[in-house]
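Researcher: Re-running this chain for the archive, since the previous output was lost when a drive failed. Same request as before.
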Amino acid sequence: MTLANDSILVTPGSGATVATHLVASKELQVVVPADVNGHLVESAASYLFTVPPIAVGANKVMLDLFNATGSGLTLRLVTVLAYKEGSVAVTGVLAVKLSLTRTTAVGTGGTAMTLEGTTLTAPNICKMDPANAALHANITARAAPTGGGTAGAVLAQRQVFPEETNAASYGAPVDFLSGLSGHATQRLVVPENTGIRIVQGAVASVGSVGFEVLFQTV
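Model: Regenerated structure tokens:
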């Protein structure tokens, strides 16, 4: 990650040199924006957690991502997406209701993610930029955890209709953070000793759902 390293006082006719760019015969000041944490935009290390489609089930925890004490980092969620499996035929009468919640303990069991994995059917976390530092060992994730993952505050609820031929929803991912996070609002953050999970509601439904979680470490 790159932090803005200086500030300057500019006085007309004197002071430090400020970068400009010529547009329509006028020199315009060049600005490099920074976020609220002081990181230059697009410079915070970013990672993508992917969970290939897994079978739905009543009250099933689909995934968890946990930031254990000692990482020294905060996770800032950029997108949390769910998408239905479209290559397997199902007859979906009922939607799959999914809730995004915080957690206060790490999940256990299930399938632990790999880092920079190459298997198409396993949960994986990859660097958005190969030059990023390796993900801290205290940040862990898994698909379909069978224990732990103590439930915290409910953040958002969405529904995925599993019928693979339904034209209205085919191929369109469901965004848990749509309307919750943007330039004018705070990002959803995951401090140390907390995490997130996605859990299905009490109705079983049918089919499989996959997930993508894009996050930054700051």
